Structure formats: structure tokens, C-alpha cells
Amino acid sequence: MLIRAFSALLTALLACLSMAASPACTQDPRQAFDKLLGDWVIHDWARQPDGGWSPQAGGEWQFQCLERGIAIQDYYRSNDALTVGTNLRVYDPESEHWQVVWTATDSPGFSHYTAVYAEDQQRIVMQSVTGSEQMQRAIYKNIQADSWDWELQHSADGEQPWVPVYRIHAVRKNSPR
Questions:
Q1: pTM
Q2: What topology does CATH give the domain 2-172?
């Protein structure tokens, strides 16, 4: 299992390196993630079995543009240190989608997502390709210079209904908010 997961990550990284020189992370179409670059304080909530929301430990999330815009990598760490993880995002101009690989201490192996920027709705939608028995999608929304919201949703079949299971409100570090 570990060898297969490592192979998937290596394949994704080699795909990044084999791409032609790409524009910086803040140039179109990569600008979908440009407002997320930087350091963020995380406030989070998990859905409970009764449908209510329970505050979680919170954390920090840092997004950075890698060398000459080849990819965007982020690092997430919960305040209780139970979850530490990273995403690697690479834009594929042929499919006009982002390819995203996620791994974390509380998630075995790697999860693969594709992401698109829904400009008309001003949000980024990432949908799982592999790595989970249920379909998952994460939606970045209400994206402002100093804050944004994120919601993880599950679906048994990838169709409606999508059920929100985890929410984040992010505030830029050193923001007056």
C-alpha cells in the first residue's frame, strides 16, 4: 500500500516537472488560488450525528507558490497537532483543471482531486477522484483578500445530495479582522 501511494505521488511530481514552463501562480488561469496564498488562521466545525455543528481545535493553513509557478503547495496543521497535512496543486492546461494530491496524518495514503474555478459563482470546487469510499468534494467560497470559507461535503454516489460534514472559516494572519 505504501509503495503504491508513493508511486502515485512520484507520478504526480514527475508530471509537474515534465510540464512546459508555466506562468506564475497569480496569472490566469492559476489566479483561482492567488487570494489563498499566504498564512491563515483556521476556525473549524465538524457535523455531529444529530446534524448540529461542533467547534474543533482550529489550526493554521499556509499556501505558497512553488518555483516559477509550477505548483501551489499548502501545509495544514491543527492546533491540537492531530492533523498535519499537505496538498500539491498543479494546473493542467489541456483539461483546464487543477490536479490535486492530499496526504495527512489522519488519512492513509494519498487522495487525488480535480479542481475547477467556477468564476460565475466565485468559488473553487475540488472533487475526489480516488482515496475514499464516499465521493468527497471541497468548496472554497466567499473568497476575500483577508478571509474565505471552505466546506467538505460527502455523497454516496457523487450525485445529489451532497452533505456538508466539515466547515472552515479562514482569516489571514495579522489581518485586522
A1: 0.81
A2: Lipocalin (2.40.128)
